[in-house]
Design a protein that fits this description.
TIM Barrel, six-stranded mixed beta sheet, alpha/beta, globular, Rossmann fold, single chain
């Protein structure tokens, strides 16, 4: 693939397979060349109707490489070789709350085997909002999007997008389902949260555009991106994985807020858009999820906003959709509403059967089906998957891990740290001055906070660090409270992700909340470091210090421990309003050292 030509697809789709909607504004995409058009057309002619339907489906894999003939391998081979499924998406394996990520070479070997089974090359996707480290071990661990919002340096965000693209391509992933264009303008949002760049529409739009520029327009490894979750998943307190959120805003408010980053992304030539499983009554869709609402996808996204690229559903296995429709019906409705790609159908064969029946009955026209099939095949042709569908195993080590990417991640983690409060000379800590730390976790088996604790003790070998989990006994907690009496200052690193700034209850397990309230009343200086929930400080108005990293990754753990001891200046600015602590853009400045 020649450099930069991912940014060449959409206009070609308009030339080859025109939509009646308006053209995508200011699109930088150029037409497919003659050879690419011929490849896409040949693929299309080779497909039966059922095989065309299958090309629209993307099914999950977990990075393992099951041996030939095993049940898992046979199941994948049947979907790919016999049914002709069009794509795969890498997910984490989750068992009893434990997350397992893929190994790079094992994942690449699996993809190569599956590509050899496919008559038409597979399109491989990854929702790499924090780059590929979200799903794959051994890669650069970038902070969350909200940390980039706290930094506010668009060049760093552009470089982040480029790093995401290059890591993805090295692993055999062709399509990045990022960034999130949602505004986190509801502090009680349980699912978007740190995944958002912030809540100011214009600032989020600028961050989204910068990321896309790095992702789609870099010269080394351009990759198409996808903004989500249209028309905006930020102003809700319901997780669409477990229920159907309702966005109560008026159409005027949506236009002034939620839609601003999506307008910007479309103007910047984003390749694809992902509607969310959201009810948005103001858009004329009633209680329907946006995924299956013509008023949202065809009328607003395709029509008013003029988007003519690829539309992909969010995971069709999410309860925001499955609670309302059977698998096959949801897939048919999504295509009727204007979607092109059916992401993670819970029962791919049932969805194939339902869509095929809908075409045969005339409910779904063959013309409508073909529009989406041609979009998918055109992307595969533009990526030149007919020539380079296999992962170059030897080349993985040339990209992963990258010292430059690691330096970028560390720099952003440091620059993002935002000081919301610093009273009673709480910061910076003094070495050897009875400094202590608590790491609040859900389970003793998690690794969250380990790097924070070890980095803190590297700065101050005499510092004491305790790990507090929900299984800790009352007697142990009572003894801990006594042990803390000798501490001058106590840093509390919290890794609980519950977002509930407006709630009366502290978003921590009751016994941990009680422990922090006791510290707050004591003579010790309480310094909160809420890694997973930037709004936690609103519940502790007497804390002497509040230091917010806007990310819970290990890179940020190390940065916060360093910041406690003044290893670098603190200069982050909050990308969200934190009631009682910070307005958007707020934050104290603290020079390094004493």
């Amino acid at each position: 693939m020649r450099p930069g030509c991912i940014s060449c697809v959409v206009a070609a789709l308009l030339l080859m397979f025109p939509w009646p909607a308006t053209a995508q504004p200011a699109s930088p995409f150029a037409e497919l060349n003659a050879a690419e058009q011929a490849t896409a057309a040949a693929w299309f002619r080779s497909l039966s109707i059922r095989q065309r339907i299958a090309q629209l489906m993307v099914v999950p894999f977990y990075g393992e490489s099951p041996f030939v003939g095993s049940p898992d391998e046979v199941a994948f081979r049947k979907l790919i070789e016999a049914e002709g499924i069009g794509g795969l998406i890498i997910l984490n394996r989750v068992n009893n709350g434990s997350v397992t990520r893929a190994e790079p070479y094992q994942m690449a070997a699996f993809l190569n085997r599956m590509q050899r089974y496919a008559a038409i090359p597979l399109l491989v996707a990854g929702d790499f909002e924090r780059s590929a480290s979200m799903r794959v071990n051994g890669l650069t661990v970038f902070p969350h999007a909200m940390a980039f919002g706290a930094v506010g340096d668009l060049e760093l965000t552009r470089r982040f997008g480029e790093a995401t693209a290059c890591e993805a391509r090295a692993l055999g992933v062709h399509w990045v389902l990022a960034p999130s264009a949602d505004l986190n303008n509801n502090p009680e949002n349980p699912v978007i949260h740190l995944r958002s760049f912030g809540e100011n529409p214009q600032k989020v739009a600028a961050q989204v555009t910068a990321f896309l520029k790095g992702l789609q327009e870099n010269q080394r490894c351009p990759v198409p991106g996808s903004v989500k979750h249209f028309p905006g998943h930020g102003d809700t307190n319901v997780d669409s994985h477990v229920g159907l959120p309702t966005i109560a805003s008026s159409s005027t408010a949506l236009e002034a807020n939620e839609l601003v980053p999506f307008h910007a992304a479309i103007a910047a030539g984003v390749y694809s858009v992902m509607p969310g499983h959201l009810s948005v009554p103001a858009l004329g869709s009633g209680t329907q999820p946006a995924t299956v609402a013509k008023a949202v996808v065809l009328d607003l996204l395709r029509g008013k906003l003029g988007f003519s690229g690829l539309v992909t559903t969010d995971g069709l296995d999410m309860k925001g959709l499955t609670s309302r429709y059977p698998a096959g019906e949801a897939a048919v409705r999504a295509l009727e509403a204007g979607a092109d790609v059916l992401m993670i159908p819970p029962d791919p064969v049932a969805s194939l059967d339902a869509i095929e029946a809908a075409v045969q009955s005339g409910r779904l026209t063959e013309e409508r089906l073909n529009e989406s099939v041609r979009r998918v095949l055109s992307l595969k042709a533009k990526l030149h998957l007919d020539e380079n569908k296999l992962v170059n195993l030897e080349a993985i080590a040339e990209t992963i891990p990258s010292p430059d990417y690691l330096q970028l991640a560390r720099s952003v983690a440091r620059k993002a740290i935002t000081l919301a409060r610093n009273e009673r000379d709480a910061l910076p800590f003094r070495r050897g001055a009875n400094q202590c730390a608590l790491v609040l976790n859900r389970s003793r088996f998690t690794s969250d906070g380990r790097l924070f604790g070890s980095t803190m003790q590297a700065f101050d070998p005499r510092a004491k660090v305790w790990f507090v989990d929900e299984q800790m006994s009352d007697a142990a907690l009572l003894q801990l409270e006594k042990d803390l009496a000798g501490c001058r200052a106590i840093a509390v690193a919290s890794f609980h992700a519950v977002a509930a700034a407006g709630a009366k209850e502290v978003p921590l397990p009751p016994r941990q909340a009680k422990l922090l309230q006791a510290i707050e009343r004591s003579a010790a200086r309480l310094v909160l470091a809420p890694f997973a929930n930037p709004y936690l400080g609103t519940h502790f108005p007497k804390a002497s210090g509040v230091l917010i990293p806007f990310s819970s990754v290990p890179t940020s753990e190390a940065a916060v421990a360093e910041a406690l001891y003044g290893a670098f200046p603190i200069s982050g600015r909050s990308p969200v309003r934190i009631p009682g602590l910070l307005e958007v853009g707020g934050g104290l400045t603290l020079s390094s050292g004493r």
